[in-house]
Amino acid sequence: MSEPVLYIVATPIGTLGDFSQRAQSILSSVSFIACEDTRHTSKLLHNFGIKAPLESLHVHNEKEKSEFLINKLLNSELKCAAVVSDAGTPCISDPGSFFIRAAHKHGIRILSIPGPSSMTSALAASGFIQPRTLFSGFLERSKKDQCKEFARWKSIAPCIAVFFESPKRIIDTLKNIKEYFFQTPIQLTLSREISKKFEEHINGSIDEILKEIEKKSEIQGEFVITVNIEPILNEKLEKPCEEIAFEVLELVKNGMHIKEACKVLAEKYEQSSKEIYNVYLKIKS
User: Fold this and answer.
1) Pairing of strands 186-192, 223-229
2) Tetrapyrrole methylase domain location, by residue (predicted)?
3) Exposed, middle or buried by CB within 10 Å (0-12, 13-18, 19+), for 130?
4) With 0-12 CB in 10 A as exposed, 13-18 as middle and 19+ as buried, what is 217?
5) Distance between CA 208 and CA 219 in Å, rounded?
């Protein structure tokens, strides 16, 4: 009896020519394909003559449906299935992870078929070089929650942060980044329409990026933003608690909770979170 297999298959993010022969071959040979939108995936498969049955698997049903799909895979004649997203690599800010997790639990072999990914394409196009990269997916909408994420980036600098943003929120998010990192050297690359006719990667300082975006009459296309965050020289050397407490004030002003701000800065400067908090209270009073 053949070993059960679940394939993770990347699909094109703009150009059909990016769809690999291996991906096409696998999707043609599985018992069924789990996908975000059956109508969207049907159109893609039709272009390549692929006729495998489809099962919907999206953010609203993946928790409940994953076990059903596992049972369907295990009881199918071919003992294999695939998961795809509308575009790019599944499970990267897209549905699929619950299905993969359930497959691991049931001892099903997982095979990942590499292909298009807007995140890795944008990262490569940025030209930034740092010892670590942090992927934040889609940021929360509120300024307060965004500042919490920015603090995480800053706490592990030097690093590259990568995230997605919609055209409707891109300007507000960039302004929040500018305000938060006003004392930190950063460079950004805004990538959009990757693999399409009007693909572009805009590189520069936060002011240069904002100026370029704000002069557009219409902002279209989902953005992938890479942020290059340089280390603050000597920032981790001995720094008085009073100065750190003023940094807490700034983080709180930008929407972060007091205790979380103290914790982040305590880790950054290798000092006591409780001591920083007590000094903060004295400054506030």
Assistant:
1) antiparallel
2) 6-209
3) middle
4) exposed
5) 16
In the structure encoding, which two tokens stand for residue 76, read together?
A: 């199918």
Check if the beta carbon of residue 92 is closer than 8 Å to that of residue 119: yes
> Domain 5-116 in CATH: superfamily?
Tetrapyrrole methylase, N-terminal domain (3.40.1010.10)
Cα(44)–Cα(247) distance, integer angstroms:
51
The pLDDT tens digits of the residues spanning 148-160 come to 899 999 888 999 9
**pLDDT one-digit tens code per residue, 194-226:** 999 999 999 999 999 999 999 888 888 899 999
Is the previous residue joined to 158 through a cis bond, with omega within 30 degrees of 0? yes
The alpha-helical segments, DSSP class H, found in the chain are 21-27, 38-47, 62-74, 97-105, 118-126, 143-155, 170-180, 206-214, 241-253, 258-269, 273-284
Domain residue spans of the chain: 5-116, 130-229, 241-284
For the record, the structure tokens of 18 come out as 């990016």
In terms of Cβ atoms closer than 10 Å to its own Cβ (0-12, 13-18, 19+), residue 87 is: buried
